[in-house]
Amino acid sequence: MEQNKPAPNKENKPKDPKKRGIGLSWLYMAIILILMASYFFSGSANNKEVSYTQLQSYIENDVIEKIVVSDKKVVEAYVRPESAVVVFGEQKDPKTGNMLSVMIPTIEEFNKYMTQINDNRSAEGKKPIDLVFEKGNDFWLIVLNVLPFLLFILFFVWMGRGMAGGAGGGIFNVGKARAQVFDKDNSQKVTFKDVAGLAGAKQEVEEIVAFLKNPKKYTVLGGKIPKGALLVGPPGTGKTLLAKAVAGEANVPFFSMSGSDFVEMFVGVGASRVRDLFRQAKEKAPAIIFIDEIDAVGRARGKNVGLGGGNDERESTLNQLLTEMDGFGTNSGVIILAATNRADVLDSALLRAGRFDRQIHVELPDVQERKEIFGVHLRPIKLAANVDVNFLAKQTPGFSGADIANVCNEAALIAARKDKKEVDKQDFMDAVDRIIGGLERKTKIMTDEEKRSIAFHEAGHATVSWMLHWANPLVKVTIVPRGVALGAAWYMPEERQLTNREHLLDEMCATLGGRAAEETFLQQTSTGALNDLERVTKQAYAMVAFYGMSQELPNLSYYDSTGKSDYGFTKPYSERTAETIDHEVSRIIAEQMQRAKEILEQNAEGHHRIAQLLIEKEVITAEDVEHILGPRPWRSRQDEIIEENARLKAEELLRKREEEQAKAKQAEEQTAPQQTETPAPQETTPSQEEENQDNNKNH
């Protein structure tokens, strides 16, 4: 039951630091532009610098009407409007009141000169030239001198903030770790209840959380807190989700970073960020550090030396990470969680005990775990009555948790596109088809001959797979183009824990059924079997070179689990062995091709009926094939898994019920004597009885 959360207060909502950084960047830019404009355009458009000799000539020719003298060696001489053309030329307007800027020797000498000029003008009956003395203002002069240095400093500050990722950074903070910190006060939490399936992986991380919550339970017996745990698994299986659940359950500071956050273009930045991250975690210990996609920084050192050398900066970052995780320094109270889907490329020093004590494998969910994951993602969806979670779990073999979430979302979108009030079974089937095969291309036009060829091809897959014991059960067959495929036969892969040679051969034979049908009934081959041939060839090479399932090379495997051979240029076998492998692969594929043709010849009538039904309906299901070829006598492994899980679940419930009953009975037995206990009669010894009788006689 969800709790009602208070509405977020917009006034108390923290501002986005990126937006604030963008605003400050614009402010810096505006200041720089204003200062540049004042620097380059501070002078008046009508201001003209002339020499002192020219000024004397203008004064004597009665061109100047006013002179302003300040306490500096520059005077401002104002030209009479009627004489502006003589001084500035005809391109200037004589009414603008133009000004001349003149450097004088000294104020005292200039004052004597102007006194003499005015005396002469007075003697001639002319008006003296106005001479005004003002106190000089050196502010703008200082600004103009300092402005280039200010522009230089502001430019580097602005660039530094941008390089460090906006607000809160700087060019000197580039070596700081920018990890996201989650603590117990974080409002949005993911708990273990939100993680469906992954029972084994969840148990491992739950123990780490339990250690953080109650360490005395383990330390009293001499146990130590695990130093690190590595989550390994395919993409989308829930590794990051498990880390989020740990952050929500542990109630300790949780530092989250990506492996690529350590690698930068600057030398030494990655190692500096590693040191800063562990320093912050030690200050808040006990704490958890989570590094997502650690393969970005933890790749094996020297692995690509033969291809031009390694990245020294990345290797120095890895060395610093190894030292911080388990070096001379102590990281008491700091647990490292990491996630990757490329554990094979990680450095062996990173995987050793003492750094990552546990490797938690997060695999693709089986049918029962997919049922639990569907239960989580179906909660917010309005479901119709015909939606069965068991059916959905069966129809999505090989799907990860992220794929299942995508299926639920696509089904809701499809139902909304069709203006439905609820999401029904067909919407989920369309969503699965959309994710597996791609979008239907109904506008793609095919001729009747192409349609017939595709129908015979897909009917060949359906017929051969239906008649083979270990082939995957058929789900549907379609000749509607989807994605890059012109048609498809969809199967429900059996989720086996162990695959035998017979399983592989039956799957190869079913895959070759389409090309076999073309050769048998149409006497032609087409490019539509490209994907089938690619899959069959890879399976055959794996049988011969990896699994040791051939007659000529039995019990030999050239598979390298370390991945080091990926960077080599030599094969681990001779040229003669390579020819033998090629011969064995060709023989296995030829045998399965002939086997598929024999099955089709024996069931030619059923094949033709399936092909004709495909041409008419374009999409047929397993029920249609069963109506034509009859029911398969073999039971699906998924049904066995569901029944076994149901049996185990019932046994678990029965065991818990018996334990509860035993505890209740034990509690009743402990409380019963206290409620019914009565004082027992006092026993007397024979000597006491005789003494009592003597006393009675005396009385």
Task: Name the descriptors.
699 residues; six-stranded mixed sheet; five-stranded mixed sheet; disordered C terminus
Topology:
Elements: H1 17-40, E1 47-50, H2 52-60, E2 64-69, E3 74-79, H3 84-88, E4 99-103, H4 107-123, E5 130-133, H5 139-163, E6 180-182, H6 199-213, H7 216-219, E7 228-232, H8 239-250, E8 254-258, H9 269-283, E9 287-292, H10 312-325, E10 334-340, H11 348-351, E11 358-361, H12 367-377, H13 389-394, H14 401-417, H15 425-437, H16 448-467, E12 474-478, E13 488-491, H17 501-511, H18 513-522, H19 530-546, H20 575-602, H21 604-617, E14 619-621, H22 622-629, H23 637-676, H24 686-698
Parallel strand pairs: 1-4, 2-5, 7-10, 7-11, 8-9, 9-10
Antiparallel strand pairs: 2-3, 3-4, 6-8, 12-13, 12-14
Helix pairs in contact: 1-5, 6-8, 9-10, 12-14, 14-15, 16-17, 16-18, 16-21, 17-19, 17-20, 18-20, 19-20
Largest sheet: 6 strands, mixed
Q: Which oligomerization state do the chains in this entry correspond to?
A: single chain
What structural class should be given to the helix and strand makeup? Answer: alpha/beta
Tell me the overall shape.
elongated
> How widely separated are the two ends?
82 Å
Proportion of beta-strand residues: 5-15%
Number of helices: 24
Mean pLDDT: 77
Helix content: 40-55%
Radius of gyration, taken over Cα atoms and rounded to an integer in Å: 44 Å
Within the largest sheet, what's the order of strands?
6-8-9-10-7-11
**Total beta strands:** 14
Unreliable residue runs: 1-22, 164-172, 304-310, 680-687, 695-699
